[in-house]
Amino acid sequence: MKFNDAVVRVPAILADLVARGMSLAVAESLTGGRLASMFVSVPGASTCFRGGVVAYATQAKSVVLGVSAARLEETGPVDGVVAEQMAAGVAALMKSDYGLATTGVAGPGPAVGHEAGTVWVGLSTPAGTSSHEFHFDGNRESVRNESVLAAISVLAEALENNGEL
């Protein structure tokens, strides 16, 4: 998916959430607010978009979003379970039906034992949680942009499947 495709897709996602009477919140690490920005750029997003948390530091993931400190100690922040816990944590914090989270390594080099471009997207829905691993090539900017697109795609696919994971 290209960035412009995601821009077109976001209003449809928000309209779908409104039609279902459901809400969304996001938790971001490597994307640093870009994901939330995609949603709030749509007029009327406040109808279903509850807000977002940029939990860039590992400790913030635990303190603010309720990610298991033991899990963070064991695996570090670049982990599928961490992404799931971030998504569930932001959904609980913002009292939203859906939580969407990003965590990973934007680069330029490896970090915490993972290559640049390693990204996890977490999703929390009324049906449960899931995580999705991605590997992107390119510089820091492109990895961050691709991560936003991946998160939007994960959410869109879940909505197409009526929230089933």
Explain this structure:
- This protein has 165 residues and is an alpha/beta fold.
- It has one domain: Maf protein, CATH 3.90.950.
- The chain is 45% helix and 21% strand.
- It is built from 6 helices and 5 strands, in the order αβαβαααβββα.
- It has a 5-stranded mixed beta sheet, with helices on both faces.
- A hairpin with a 2-residue loop joins strand 4 (118-125) and strand 5 (128-135).
- Helix 1 runs parallel beside helix 6 (140-160).
- The relative contact order is 0.18.
Shape label: globular
CATH topology: Maf protein
Poorly predicted sequence stretches spanning 5 or more consecutive residues: none
Instruction: Tell me what portion of residues adopts beta-strand conformation.
Output: 15-25%
Q: Whole-number average pLDDT? A: 94
CATH class value: Alpha Beta
CA gyration radius, whole angstroms: 14 Å
Largest sheet: 5 strands, mixed
Helical residues, percent: 40-55%
Distance N terminus to C terminus? 20 Å
The strand order across the widest sheet is 2-1-3-4-5
Q: How many individual domains?
A: 1
Q: For the record, what is the CATH homologous superfamily label?
A: CinA-like
Number of DSSP E strands: 5
Order of helices and strands: HEHEHHHEEEH
Domain CinA C-terminal: 13-158
Protein name: CinA family protein
Pfam family, one: CinA
Task: List strands and helices in order, with pairings.
Elements: H1 3-20, E1 24-28, H2 34-40, E2 49-54, H3 58-63, H4 69-75, H5 80-94, E3 98-104, E4 118-125, E5 128-135, H6 140-160
Parallel strand pairs: 1-2, 1-3
Antiparallel strand pairs: 3-4, 4-5
